[in-house]
Amino acid sequence: MSWFDGTAHIECDLQAVKASIADLGPHFVGVVRSMPGISEAELLEQGEDFVTIRTNEGVMKRHNIERSVGDDEVVLRFDEVYETRKVTGRSHFEDTCTASSSGGVHFHGVVSDVQANGVLGFLYRRFGSRNMGRRSCRRRRNPSRARSADQRSGRAPSSLVTIEQDVSPTRPAAPRQRHLHQLISST
Question: Which pTM value belongs to this model?
Fold first, then answer.
């Protein structure tokens, strides 16, 4: 069963997606940098099927990365371990990009097998998916705001952030529930 299942329309062509995933380190740093609550993302290590990224919250290890690239579809599958000061989360991702008949790319992202320890882990498993898509959507719907934030911080803009997206989580967002990033920083 999926923990999060969302879709988006990306205003680019499939060749841009293929070019982005050709070098996994910068690709994943750009993706992570656009996540809610992340103000810093630095590539620590990269191999054929893994990347390690340090964020302002901890260390993220994406491993067992599988790329499947076809003429009309790109699929990325990987496992993630995200170690912060207060909680360690583990999950599996499957991101699929297909060429859209109306132009652009149709993105479908699924996060499953989520595990996280302790009370914060319980809250993340229970409520995190509801806010994940909604907050990511807000940032990605306004790419000019994301670019401005990147310019103010002096970091290179993320290719994913500069792409307009419309993410629709499978579960409606619940009001006043906080994302794991907010819970960790407030304790």
Answer: 0.73
